[in-house]
Each structure stands twice: as C-alpha cells, then as structure tokens.
Amino acid sequence: MPEPDADTSKSTSSSTRSTAPSSSTAFTTKKTLSEKMPEHIMSCVPFYDFLANNLEKKIGLREASQTNLSLIAAYAYPDYSVVTIEGDGYWGKTAYCRYFDKDWHEISSPVESVVYPAFAVHCCRHPRAAYMGITLTRDGERTPTSDPKYNLSICLAPMYGNETKWLLLTELIEHYKLQGVQHFYLYVKDIDAYSRKLIDDYVKTGEAEAVYFREERDRPGKEWQLVGVEGEETLRKHLPTLVFHNTSVIAPQGHTAKCVLDTRRVVIMWVHYPSLLFPGYIEEHAEKEDAHIRHYRDQYDDNWGKTWIHEVEGFGNFTMTDYPEHLMTPLHQNVKKRLDRVYRKN
C-alpha cells in the first residue's frame, strides 16, 4: 500500500460507521474549514494512474456481501495517506476522505477516493490533520484509535472460533520474541474470556496491540483472517513445542507461504502472498535451509484431517522432530513466567 521511500513516522487513525448521522450527530463545525484540498485523490497520490489501471483490470477483485464500514488505522506519508478498513464488500466503491484536528473539528472539505485494494483507501495528505475518517457519503460518526511503529512486528491473522487460545498464543508470542520481534498486532474476531486475560496482559505491558472486530457473524470465521495452568507438570504435558513432534516434510515453495514484508512496496496483500507490488519490486523466496515456519495442525478443526492431510502426506514421510534445543529452555521459561503472571492465584 504505502509509497516507496515514504516516511511512516507520523500516523493517525480513526474508526467510523457508515451510517448517516441524525440531526443530533450532524457536524456543526463547517465554519472551521480553511485549507482548500483537492477534490479527488488523482491530484495528490503520485501513483494514482497505476492504481486506476489495476482497478480497471480488476486486479485483486474481491466480491463479497457488504458489512458495516469501520476503520482500523490511517498511515500518513509525505503527499498522501492510506486508511485501512475493516468492512468487507466495498472493493471499487467511491469513498470520501475526511480530515479532523485534535479536537475532532473538520478542517477541510472531503476528498473523493475509491476503496482499492479491498481494505484500503488512499487519501490526500492534510498538514494539520490529527485524525482521519472514511465515509461513503460526506457525513458519518467516528471514533479515534491509534497505532505505534516498530522495526519488526507481527500482524496475526484474525483469531476466530470457540476453542481456547491462551497456550498456543503465549507460545507463539514468546517464540517470536526470541527471534527479535518487537511488537504484535492481534486481530480478534472470537476469543474466550480466559484467553482474553492473556491478551489484555500483553497489551498492558506494551508488547501487543489488540483490535477487536465486531461480533456480528456476517461472514465465515476464516474470512476474518488472515483452561488454566497450575504448576510445572501441566505445562510440560501441554506446551505444543514439548508435545508436538510428528512433523511433515517442508512444503514446496509457495505452498501456504508466509511473508516478511516492507509494507511500503506492497499494494495488495493476501494471507499467504502479495498479489500486487509497486513497479520495480519483486518477491524473493527464502531457501528452506534458511527459513521455514512450523505450523500446528488440528486434524479435527475445520475438517483439516479429511480435507488436507492427504496433500501434506504427498510431500513425503512424516518424521519426529524437536524444537531447537538452544531455544527450548528460554521459551519454556518465558511462557511459564507469562502464564504465572496472568493466571497464578496468590
């Protein structure tokens, strides 16, 4: 999405609903409009023609039923901003960029844009905007949010489903902290109360930011992507890296891949791969000896054991493997420390 060589040190964010305001919520600050902005993003987004051409070709087309429009974050660059949205079904729809000062007074006329890719809206940059909003008309309610910046972070595909997640999530976060990840963005569709205590603690310590999606079930859970420990013995019996050993052959290159991205070079990103990059940039694939990802599989979840197991068996024979020995001790200690902090009863 972001432009190459863009400065991401300044960012603002907001969230909004697409419902038109009633008379009691309509804006009353039109008199504060002062800066004259372009009427359309073609005047400020330097790669607008590139976006428009790919939009016309239907690159990245996503056809889905419309859900409520709400925002996740907005990212400011020298000449333009990119706003990410949570709502689905708006690909190619006209949208309006809104600009507000620190007191949520509107400071400019709306600028016309388009939802492209499916969950992004490009906008002109406003030098005095503290917050931004996106509406399908020229009015709408808004709720501000914020986002931090880190050199290396993980965006976890939205968690969904009724199963408990606390142990797997703790291990995942502590594993990647050992790899140098500085921050975690946790997107949550469904979460049990016990696991939420863990998420709240990571947020409290500043190691994670959690975005909770609305509870309406307007599309399947997987379309949103993407009980207690008492004592050392329980952890030894259930920590996945200690008990999961039956491992498949590493999948062929590109099969359910995960990516390390410089987001300034990517226009459209799917769960497993980017489908559109800015001109001049290409994908590079890491050799399996240099990098691979361990992916836990529950044979019963989403009918995986019947739907996909035979394809994985086709890669080669399963073998018994262990988590790297030099990482096992610190991982185990860090997971136990975190779980004791969150769940241990005094």
UniProtKB/TrEMBL annotation:
Residue segments, region Disordered: 1-29
Localisation: Membrane
Membrane topology: Single-pass membrane protein
GO cellular component annotations of the record: cytoplasm; membrane
GO MF annotations in UniProt: glycosyltransferase activity
EC number per UniProt: 2.4.1.-
Bias kind Low complexity: ranges: 9-29
Main location: membrane
InterPro entries associated with the record: Glyco_transf_92 (IPR008166)
Keywords: Glycosyltransferase, Membrane, Transferase, Transmembrane, Transmembrane helix
Presence of keyword Glycosyltransferase: yes
Family in the record: Belongs to the glycosyltransferase 92 family.
The protein, known as: Glycosyltransferase family 92 protein
